Model the fold of this input.
Amino acid sequence: MIYILSYYNHNSKNGGAYRLNSLAKYMSNINRVDFFSLSIESNFLGAIKYWKNAGILIKIWVLFNKIIFNAGLVLTKDPYYKRQALSYYNSKIKSTDTIVVSYPTIDDILIGIEVMQRHKCKLNIDFRDYILEFPLEKFSWLQKRRLKNLFKKIGDNDLVLVTAVSPPICNSLKPYFKNVHCITNFRPLADVSPVLLDLGKDIKVLYFGSISDSFDRSSKILFKAISLLAKKNKNKNFFFSFYGKYTKNDISSFNSLKDIRNLTLDYFEPISENELGKYDFAILWGVPGNPGYVSSKFFSYLQLKVPIIAAAEGNQVGKYIDNFSVGYSYPFDKNVLIRGFSELENSKELYNSDLTFFSNEYVLKKWSSIIL
Done:
């Protein structure tokens, strides 16, 4: 049996949810799969499931633990979440089984390690982000030291398999684990024909996902870049569609650009790639100074076959964009969209490289062969 613990449930529209959801679906064709989620943030039903047995003492316990976690004193972020997951697996899992957990979050890693140690089963820790360098969760020196010691303790164990989304993240884990594999993100990529570029007067632009989130994305530069693009190209009408969860500051930034006549900005709730229409290009905003960063937006754009203009220089995703000829990647400055749009106007086609490396079938076949 393959047990998959996911922070997101099957109904989540978060880009990070696609990875484990797809693995579960693919592996169910060749093995028995148990997909388990105690999601408390992806949707309301998850929150009900999580808290239904929680009394006031448990809530106090969780709150106190969160305080000492944020103070950098403990590794477990949510002990109630961890206890429920361990209780679920203790009654099911055997030494012949495999459990797959993903980072972020830290609790899922700790759950996976404890299950592996108790039941002598195989463990796959899948890293979608750095954990010790550029972490989403800001670990203290003490927390990092404990993590490193924990990783070194289990790193030589033949039962432990590590996967990560990009070569730089893999390299950061190799000092601690002997069995590390690069498993990039992926999407269904059926159409292999090139994209012929023919920009008209009305330009439809897509931005998929959040702007101001856990990473510092220099969002002020993004809105400045949008403003400069419209002002530089007054003979064009730009229609921007933003799909994601946006903060009050993001919405304020949207509103600040309303007076630009040839610019229309609309923002919507997240939806799946299958519900989106056709766009002239898409924007990808990377993370300055993070070499291993590979945005899930990139793979959504590949699925849509939309040309990409990115501020992602120094990110792995920027290398992918340039190397596979799906768009253009630049440094993080206000001229990124002007430069990218000019390149699009002077280009005849994109998506003329083999993208099998990012396809569902190729990646999931590779991943499943490693697990099994």
Notes: The two ends are 10 Å apart (CA to CA). The chain has a mean pLDDT of 90. The first helix runs from residue 17 to 27. Residues 283 and 309 are 5 Å apart (CA to CA).
